[in-house]
Automatic annotation (TrEMBL):
Gene3D superfamilies: Glycosidases. It comes from Halalkalibacterium halodurans (strain ATCC BAA-125 / DSM 18197 / FERM 7344 / JCM 9153 / C-125). This is Beta-glucosidase. Pfam families: Glyco_hydro_1 (PF00232). Keywords: Glycosidase, Hydrolase. The gene is gblH. One of its GO terms (cellular component) is cytosol. It comes from the Bacteria.
Amino acid sequence: MSKHSFPEGFLWGGAIAANQAEGAYLEDGKGLTLVDLLPTGQKRWDVMLGKLDSFTPLEGEFYPSHEAIDFYHRYQEDVALLAEMGFKAFRLSISWARIFPNGDDPEPNEKGLQFYDDLFDELLKYNIQPVVTMAHFDVPVHLIESYGGWRSRKLVGLFETYAKTILSRYKDKVKYWMTFNEINMLLHLPFVGAGLVFKEGENKKQIQYQAAHHQLVASSLAVKACHELIPDAKIGCMLAAGATYPYTCHPNDVFEAMTKDRESFFFIDVQSRGEYPGYAKRFFRDHNIVIDMEEGDEALLKNHTVDYIGFSYYASRVTSTDPEVLKNITSGNVFGSVENPYLEKSEWGWTIDPKGFRTTANQLYDRYQKPLFVVENGLGAVDDVTLEGEINDEYRIDYLRKHIAEMAEAIADGVDIIGYTSWGPIDVVSASTGEMKKRYGYIYVDRDNEGKGSLKRMKKKSFHWYKKVIETNGEKR
């Protein structure tokens, strides 16, 4: 196990999202967001892919985001537990519809603004730095119903207004920002990533990449506003990352692996380097995609790039050009992958690849030469509570210990990593499945897949382990 040290001031912590934790989905003036339309079960996947029957929740369906873990009312208790672990940073998101319930309201919702004021104050009371994502799969439903989500240029201006509102309000409380969570997910889950609902016969790729352009322009406008309003703040982008391995050393497999990686890097290339890369322009030509740009878009992208690269890492991927090999695609992860015979898998079929974490970090730093921030990493697993109320999640500790060791190796490689906020320090609703039994946290929440339970919080074995990791700045793990 690596014993390389972590830099002084390293930001240890954890990460959640508003739509998976807060609940109170219509309280204090909040509007509906797209996740509020995601039920459990098979229909959840249908909606995530843009197959939507209604823009309102349906009778007889269970929507886990509506109450989630009730972080909205219990955040003080939860923040105290994070502080007990010694958190230096806490990554969370602001719900756009809590600030502008419809997304295009003339004035923001003061009660929504005040909630985040109170939450940030609570974090800062314990010297925990808020790391805030502006848009974490959280488009107001009204903007989808009225404008078609991010397919419309209208959302660029509305997002700029939202970004300026929260940057101005919290300029003295938040010094780390990110624009869009896992922006590349737009290509895999278009409704979740951009509020896209397709009609029969539409050119989906054209719509997705036009929506991507709108998000990239909106991101640059948010970066510009952040640099102007909070000069001492840092604002980054965020990628769902994971190195893609070729199944064989055949040149076609190697090139296919590079192509798969570029599918995700495309977004960060623009946000970090400030222009559309040549391979993307060729892809557009080959697929008859024409990006509608307004005058000034290219200059905006070029002049307002991000300060750091945030990324999530859960698993690596494998690809091939052999049709027979491609029949063996693993399930459980939105990124399809050929099964890797050298790796174990989680209960949900996600490959467990700590070395891939180091590879991915090196890959990103080599490519961008900007500080990295690991803002999601963790193991979703079923946790059993003993009769004595104990949760022995040694499997989670083992997963995290190995990944943290590889992160230390990456830092020793020369990779500039400023922090690590593992996913779900407190159990939250699973984004992919809507389940509660797929748990990531150091803190157990008494709630099941049907929404039953007391919501009582309980410390797992990993709680005490992670506390020691933070206390020793990663030395004891």
